[in-house]
Recover the amino acids of this structure.
C-alpha cells in the first residue's frame, strides 16, 4: 500500500497507526521527503516520533529541507514500525512525505527457514592451500 501525507503550518503532524487488535506485522517505509508548491526558502525540519525499546517517546530529525539548497531528500525506504508520528518541527512547509506500508499476515509468513541441510546437500569445499612463493 502506498502512503502519502503533507505537513504544513496548519497541519504540523501526521500519525500513522494500525489497529492494535491486528495480528499482522506492519512495516512502514519512508521513501521521499520533499518541499511542494508554496514552500518558502526556510529550513523545514521533519521529525519522526516513535517509541524506543523502553516504550519512551523519542523524536529523531530525518530531514532538513530548504528550497534553495535541498528541496528533496531520498530516504531509501527508511523502515519504521507503527505507530509513528511525522512532525514538522521547524518551518511552515508544505512538506510531502511518500512511502509504502507492507502488511505481513503471520499465518502467511514462513518464519521458519530450513537451515538443516542434509550431508548430501552440503557442498564439500576444497582445503585451503598455502600460497606459492
Amino acid at each position: 500500500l502506498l502512503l502519502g501525507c503533507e505537513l504544513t503550518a496548519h497541519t504540523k503532524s501526521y500519525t500513522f497507526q494500525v489497529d492494535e487488535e491486528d495480528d499482522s506485522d506492519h512495516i512502514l517505509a519512508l521513501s521521499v521527503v520533499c518541499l511542494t508548491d508554496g514552500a518558502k526558502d526556510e529550513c523545514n525540519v521533519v521529525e519522526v516520533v516513535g517509541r524506543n525499546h523502553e516504550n519512551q517517546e523519542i523524536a529523531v530529525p530525518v530531514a532538513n529541507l530548504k528550497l534553495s539548497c535541498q528541496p528533496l531528500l531520498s530516504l531509501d525506504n527508511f523502515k519504521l514500525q507503527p505507530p509513528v508520528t511525522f512532525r514538522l518541527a521547524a518551518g511552515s512547509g508544505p512538506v510531502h512525505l511518500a512511502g509504502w506500508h507492507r502488511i505481513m499476515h503471520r499465518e502467511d509468513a514462513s518464519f521458519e527457514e530450513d537451515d538443516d541441510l542434509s550431508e548430501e546437500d552440503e557442498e564439500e569445499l576444497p582445503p585451503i592451500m598455502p600460497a606459492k612463493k
In short: Residues 4 and 98 are 5 Å apart (CA to CA). The two ends are 59 Å apart (CA to CA).
